[in-house]
Each structure stands twice: as structure tokens, then as C-alpha cells.
């Protein structure tokens, strides 16, 4: 019995590798946009921006998905310095290959509607969800706050590589990249041909404005710092900033109704990152009493679960700018997870999460091609039996 169990564990890495090989697009090499440096479009450390590009084929040759990588934010010089010499602040530290899965997969069986499109992943190294633009370089720490310039430089580069002939285009992204897809949605469309079908699919980017369990405005103050540090105001919704001020306009709930481009929100109502960092950040739980609950909602005490259910109610209220609009869609499940479109087992697999008997991939595809609208909000935890997958490794999405 023990020998058999040991043999199973020894073979587990082989099984995982075979699964990745069968379900993925393989690894796509990195491209450094060296000429962007002359435009000042650079990472926090001054290195050039980077992206990965898997070309489309056949009927998808004039269709494009631009996926924005996530990875949190920095809200002052100190936190930006912490990122500066990592992959989240320097292209010098990035992996030179990236696996393309989920919405970026190039196999029809795993990505039916978008497999043969041109698929691009833009790497994240500015810490502002691609909104920053400060001309002056920090003279002491050599920090560059140029996220908005990175976005524009890469998009213009892709236009020259064929996106200027796009018939279909999607701006997507996960986490901070999902927020970037919301904040840059109309801007993205402005670069594309007038006749193109252009839409946005943010994933796990709908961060909401609520106090933490101690009553502190932690995420509000944090986002205010991001906007001030990076000079983001000029790239946020003008109608929003005139009403609420720039800091609040980093929250999707205040800008969603002003987005003219069709948008489809993919998010968990119990977003694991938001519950861990917005509802119960470390400073609001100094003794770690929430530890078991934050690891698995099934471990929550009745009082903790009441707070978590309250977060879900606030999340649903924050979606009002997306609801009841024929051009907007949503897939809001009750899974305890963060980011779903880039993970094959969550995007399109036999056991992937479903709403209305529909996977995320099918819902997004039907909505994009206008085969049928999709606006569904899941019932409350723990009602959905398809939410069986583990929480995405939070190390990929830094705490704030």
C-alpha cells in the first residue's frame, strides 16, 4: 500500500506536465519593446515594456485578444521600490516564456471561440493598472511612473503588426489587469478601426469600495495613494472624477456606467483576493482570527460568514452600472476564487464552474458574437456544486 502511494506521488509531476502539454498552447516567447524607451514608456525601473504574442490563423487572422497581466499595485515610493527589481517592476526580471491557457489557448477543443485569434499578453511592470503618467523621474530612486504610456506604446506597436486591420478585438486581463481592462476599455476601442467589433472582458478586476471588518477605509486610502503617486487622474473617467474625485474613480463601480464600449464582467462574488485584502486585510485582523475562514469559507464562524455574505451583497450592489444594459454582460459565480479566464480548468473544461448550465467560455463567446445575452449572478455560498476548484495561488497576486 505505502509503495503504491509513493509511486503515485512520484508520478504526479509527470501527470501535471502531460496535462499542461495537452491543454496549453505551449510556451510563447517574450518580446521587449525597445523603441518604447524613447517615448518614456518604461517599467518602474526604466526597462522597456514586454509582451508575448501568439499569431492567429485562418478565420481568426483579423481578430485580436489583448490580455493585461495582473499583480497588485504600489501606492507610494516605498511600495514601488519593493517591486522595482522584481518581474512586477522590471522586464529584466520577467520569465522569457509564458504559457497560454484559457482564453489565450490556441486549441479549439479548449477555447472554441477564440483559439485561432491573435493572442497577446502584455506584461505588468508599472504598478498602476496601466494608468500612470508622471513626466519627472524620481531622482533619488530612479522610479518611473509610466503605465499609461506603456499601454499606448504596446497597442500602437500591435496596430502596426496587423491590429489596424482588426475585425474583432477584445481587451481582457486578470486582477489588476482586469481593472486595467475596465479603466482602459474605451481608450482601447479608440485605437481600433471604426468598423471593428470591440469589446472588453475584465476578469477579477471589479474591486469594490467597502470598509474592512474594523471599519477602516483601507482600500479607499490605498487606491488614493496609487492615483496620486502615479498621476493617474488624467486617464480616469472625466465624468467620474468631476463627481467623486480621482481616488474613487479607480473603483469600477463609479465608472462602469460611463463605459461606452460593450463590457463583460467575469468575477466571483466571493473574490478570494478581495476578501483577504479588502474585507479582512492583515491590519484589520492583527491576531489572525480570520485565518481559517480566509483559507476556506467552509471554516468560517457564523459571525465571519455573516460578514462574508455582507461583502457579497455589497458586491452585487456595486454591479448596478453593469446590470440592465443590453451591451453589457456578467458571469458572477459564488466560487471562492480570484481570476478564472486564464486558467483552463475554470475557463472551459467538463468540470469548470457554470451558471445557467453555461461555462465562462461559452457565456463570453455567446455574448461577444451576439448569439445570446448573458447576465447571471450566482446564488449565495455554498449553493453552486460546480465551484469545486481550489483558490488560485494568492502568491501570484500580491497582498496590499
Automatic annotation (TrEMBL):
N-terminal signal peptide: 1-24
GO CC list: plant-type cell wall
Keywords: Cell wall, Cell wall biogenesis/degradation, Hydrolase, Secreted, Signal
InterPro entries: AB_hydrolase_fold, PAE/NOTUM
Primary site of residence: secreted
SUPFAM superfamilies named among the record's database cross-references: alpha/beta-Hydrolases
GO MF annotation, one: pectin acetylesterase activity
Localization per Swiss-Prot or TrEMBL: Secreted, Cell wall
Function (record text): Hydrolyzes acetyl esters in homogalacturonan regions of pectin. In type I primary cell wall, galacturonic acid residues of pectin can be acetylated at the O-2 and O-3 positions. Decreasing the degree of acetylation of pectin gels in vitro alters their physical properties.
Name by which UniProt lists this protein: Pectin acetylesterase
Amino acid at each position: 500500500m505505502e509503495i503504491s502511494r509513493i509511486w503515485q506521488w512520484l508520478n504526479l509531476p509527470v501527470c501535471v506536465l502531460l496535462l499542461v502539454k495537452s491543454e496549453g498552447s505551449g510556451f510563447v516567447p517574450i518580446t521587449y519593446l525597445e523603441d518604447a524607451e524613447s517615448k518614456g514608456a518604461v517599467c518602474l525601473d526604466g526597462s522597456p515594456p514586454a509582451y508575448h504574442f501568439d499569431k492567429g490563423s485562418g478565420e481568426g487572422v483579423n481578430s485580436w485578444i489583448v490580455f493585461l497581466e495582473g499583480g497588485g499595485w504600489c501606492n507610494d515610493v516605498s511600495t514601488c521600490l519593493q517591486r522595482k527589481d522584481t518581474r512586477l517592476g522590471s522586464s529584466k526580471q520577467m520569465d522569457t516564456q509564458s504559457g497560454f491557457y484559457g482564453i489565450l489557448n490556441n486549441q479549439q477543443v479548449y477555447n472554441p471561440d477564440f483559439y485561432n485569434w491573435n493572442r497577446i499578453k502584455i506584461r505588468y511592470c508599472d504598478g498602476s493598472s496601466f494608468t500612470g503618467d508622471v513626466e519627472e523621474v524620481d531622482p533619488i530612486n530612479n522610479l518611473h511612473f509610466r503605465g499609461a504610456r506603456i499601454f499606448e506604446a504596446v497597442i500602437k506597436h500591435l496596430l502596426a503588426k496587423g491590429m489596424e486591420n482588426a475585425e474583432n478585438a477584445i481587451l481582457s486581463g486578470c486582477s489588476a489587469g482586469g481593472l486595467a481592462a475596465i479603466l482602459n476599455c474605451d481608450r482601447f476601442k479608440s485605437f481600433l478601426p471604426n468598423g471593428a467589433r470591440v469589446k472588453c472582458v475584465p476578469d477579477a478586476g471589479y474591486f469594490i469600495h467597502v470598509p474592512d471588518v474594523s471599519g477602516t477605509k483601507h482600500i479607499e486610502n490605498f487606491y488614493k495613494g496609487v492615483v496620486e503617486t502615479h498621476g493617474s487622474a488624467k486617464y480616469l473617467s472625466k465624468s467620474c472624477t468631476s463627481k467623486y474625485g480621482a481616488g474613487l474613480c479607480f473603483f469600477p463601480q463609479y465608472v462602469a456606467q460611463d463605459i461606452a464600449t460593450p463590457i463583460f464582467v467575469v468575477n466571483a462574488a466571493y473574490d478570494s483576493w478581495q476578501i483577504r485584502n479588502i474585507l479582512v486585510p492583515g491590519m484589520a485582523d492583527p491576531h489572525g482570527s480570520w485565518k481559517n475562514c480566509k483559507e476556506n469559507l467552509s471554516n468560517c464562524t457564523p459571525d465571519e460568514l455573516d460578514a462574508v455574505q455582507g461583502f457579497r451583497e455589497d458586491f452585487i450592489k456595486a454591479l448596478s452600472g453593469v446590470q440592465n444594459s443590453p451591451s453589457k454582460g456578467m458571469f458572477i459565480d459564488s466560487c471562492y476564487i480570484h481570476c478564472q479566464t486564464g486558467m483552463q480548468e475554470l475557463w472551459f473544461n467538463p468540470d469548470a464552474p457554470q451558471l445557467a448550465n453555461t461555462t465562462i467560455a461559452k457565456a463570453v463567446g455567446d455574448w461577444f458574437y451576439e448569439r445570446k445575452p448573458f447576465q447571471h449572478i450566482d446564488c449565495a455560498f455554498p449553493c453552486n456544486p460546480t465551484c469545486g476548484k481550489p483558490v488560485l495561488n494568492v502568491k501570484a497576486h500580491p497582498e496590499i
